[in-house]
Amino acid sequence: MKKIIAICALVLAAVPAFAQFGQRAPQPITNGLKDTYKDYFMIGVAVNQRNISTPEQIELIKREFNSITAENDMKPQPTEPRKGEFNWENADKIANFCRENGIKLRGHCLMWHSQVGTWIYQDEKGNLLPKEEFYANMKHHIQAVVNRYKDVVYAWDVVNEAVADSPVRPGQPELRNSPMYQIAGEEFIYKAFEYAHEADPNALLFYNDYNECDPGKSDRIVGLITRMKAAGVPVHGIGMQGHYNIYSPSAAEMEAAVEKYAAIVDHIHVTELDIRVNTDQGGALRFNQGETRQVASWEQSLQQDQYENLFRIMRKHADKVDCVTFWNLSDRDSWLGANNSPLLFDANYQPKMAMYNAVKNFDPAQDNIVIKEDFVPSTKNQPGQLYPMVNSQRYIRYRIDAPKATSVIAGSTVLHKDADGFWTGTSKTPADEGFHYYHLTIDGGTFNDPGTLNYYGSTRWESGIEVPAHDQAFYTERNVPHGRVEEVLFWSKSTNQLRRAFVYTPPTYDASKKTRYPVLYLQHGWGENEYGWSNQGHANIIMDNLIADGKIEPFIVVMTYGMTNEGFRPGAAGPAAGPQAPISTATGAPAEVPPTRPAVAAPAAPAAPGAAGQRGGGMGMMMNNGFETVLVDELIPYIDSHFKTKADKAHRAMAGLSMGGMETHTITLARPEVFGYYGLLSGGTYTPEELQGIKDIKGIFMGCGSKEGPDNIRNAAAALQAAGYNAKGYVSEGTAHEFQTWRRCLYEMAPMLFR
Fold this sequence. Notes:
Layout: H1 4-7, H2 9-12, H3 33-36, E1 42-47, H4 55-64, E2 67-70, H5 76-79, H6 89-101, E3 104-112, H7 131-149, E4 153-160, H8 179-184, H9 187-199, E5 204-209, H10 215-230, E6 237-240, E7 243-245, H11 251-262, E8 267-276, H12 297-316, E9 321-326, H13 353-360, H14 364-367, E10 376-377, E11 389-390, E12 396-401, E13 408-410, E14 413-414, E15 416-417, E16 422-426, E17 434-438, E18 440-442, E19 445-447, E20 454-457, E21 460-467, E22 484-492, E23 497-505, E24 519-523, H15 532-535, H16 539-548, E25 556-560, H17 627-642, E26 652-657, H18 659-670, E27 677-681, H19 688-691, E28 699-705, H20 710-722, E29 727-732, H21 739-749
C-alpha cells in the first residue's frame, strides 16, 4: 500500500481528498554529501575537462564534493608522453579549478604499468632499460609533477596496481610482472615513494590497488606495505579503489580488508568508487559495458545495499578513513559506460534519489546499534516455520533456502549466502509496528516466502509479517463474545457479474430478531480487496474488543471489493521501499487466507478474489469506475434486504483507507443522501467549502500516520470544527501508510459512529 502514493501522484494534486499527503514539490538540494560527512571524511570525485567547464556540473561538484581527483590528466602518459615533453594544459586546468574554488586536490597517479610512456622503462628498440636509467627517468617524471602541484595536492597515489591478482600459483611472484618489476623487482616501488617524498615531504603518499577486498590479494598488499615500512619507505596510506559490483565484495570482505589495512597504516582512502550493475569488478580495462536497458528495481536494491554497506563500514572506521572518492561525476562520465549505472548521479547529472538518500541521509545511531538476539517467529508464519523472525527492537530476520541463487532480496532487505546455501539477512532499520507485506526477489524473479501465510495486497497475494506493537491489545484475540464474518454473494447488474462482500455481524446479532443495527461500509486501498480489513486489518477482532469493553454500540461492518485495482497487472511491480519502509509492499504469490482467523470465511480458490473475470481499467478510470453504482445501488439494497439494518442515512457510514478513502470522499459527496458518517483513513481530508449544502452530516473522521502529513489532518479537522461540524482528526504516532495506522484509525473512529 505504500506504493499508492507514487502511483496516484498525478491524480492526488487535483483531489482534495488527498490533501494530507502535502503535495510538496521536490525541494532543491542545498547541502551535499561533503556536508553530511564533514565529521567523518572527505567526499571526493574524479573529474574530466567537461566537468570543470560546464556550469551545471561545476555547481554539482561544488555542492557535493570537497576533494577532487583528475581522472586521467595527471597520469604519466598524459603529462609526459615523451621524455622531457610535458603536457601540463589539462592537469593545470584541474589544479587551477581546485585553487579557485578552495577544493583539495588528490594526485593520481605517479607510476603505473598502464597509461605510462614506454620511454620510462625501455629504449627505442623496445629493450628494457638498465635499472639506473629507469630510476633516473622515474625520478625525473615524479618530481617534475609533484613539484608543479605541491601547493594544491594533499595526497598522491604514488604507485598504482603493482600487486598481482588472485590466484597467485606457487612459484609466481606476488607482484605484477610489469616491465618495471622485471627491471628492478619490488625496489622500484620503494624508489617511487622516496622520490615523491623528496619533492613534497608534506604530501600523504598512497599505494593504490583494485580487488583490494579479495582475501588473498589484500594479504599480498599488506605484505608489500609491511616490507616497505620495515625498509623505512615513506608510505602513509593505502588506496582501496572500490571498483565493485552489486554482488561482491560482501560487507564482511570489505570490513575485513579495512581492518587489515588499518592495522598497518594511518590513512585509508577509497579512491575510485563505483558499483556496476553486472558481475565485473576491479580495475581491468576489459569489462562489460552493460546492456542498453533500464536497470531493474531488484538490481537497484542490490546496488543500494552495496553503497550502504560500504559507507557504513567507512563511517565505522573514520579514525583511519580520510576520504571516499567516486570515480566520475555521473553515469555519463563513467569509464564503465552509463549502461552499468555505477554512480549516485545519472547520465543527466540528477541524483538517483533512493540511493543518494541512502548514502547521505543515514541515521548515525544505526551505525552502532547492537541488535538483540531475542528473535522469535512472526505470528504470520506458516505452522511450524521459524522464519521470518522479529526481535524486541522490531528488526526482522529472514532465512531462505536457495543454494543456486545469485541474489535474494526479502522485501527491501538484501540477504547474503551462508556456507550451508541458506540466504540470511536482518533488516537494516527497525520496522514500524504492525503488519507489513513483502515478497522475495530471487535473481529477478518474484516469489512468496514459503515460511509465511499470504495476504492479498498490491494486486496479488503477498507474504506477510507482523511486528508486535506496544498497543496491540486492542486487536488481540481475547476470550470475549465474538461476532461473525460471513461471505455474501450479490448480483451486480451494472457489471453483469456476481460480486463478493464480507459482512461482520456483532456477537448480539442473533440474540434478537427485532434488533436492527447501523452499518459501516469499510473500504480497502489500492492493491487489496475485500479480504483486507478482516485479515490484515483485524477489523472483526477490533470490533469484538470494543463491544466487549463497552466503548461502542454494536454495528454491522460490510467490506467489499472497491474496484480499485482495475488495469494493474498482478506481479508487475518490483521490490520497493520508502525511507520509512524496511518492508517492501510489493508482490507475492497465491496461497490460502490465514487460518488464524476462524471467524473469517476462506476463499474457495487461490485466484485473485472479489469478482469474476479480469479487473481491467486503470487509474484513469479511478474516479469513474462504476463502484459508486455497485455500492449504493446494488450492495446497500442487498445488505438492507438480507440483514437487520437500520436502513437510513443517520445509521449508515462509509470509510476507507488510502484509495478507499478517495472513493469514500467521492461517493459521500456525490450521494449525500446515503451516508451520515464519513471516514478517511490516510485518504485525505474534507473542507467546509465542499460540504456546503449537505444536510445532516453526523460525523467526520480523518486520520493518518505521523509519517504521512499529519499537520494537514489536524488543520482540516480544526477547520471543520470551526465551521460547526462534528469532526475528529487522529494521528497514529510512529506509523506511515500501512495497516497499523488504519487499525488504530478504526479503533479511534468506531466510538464516534452512530452516537
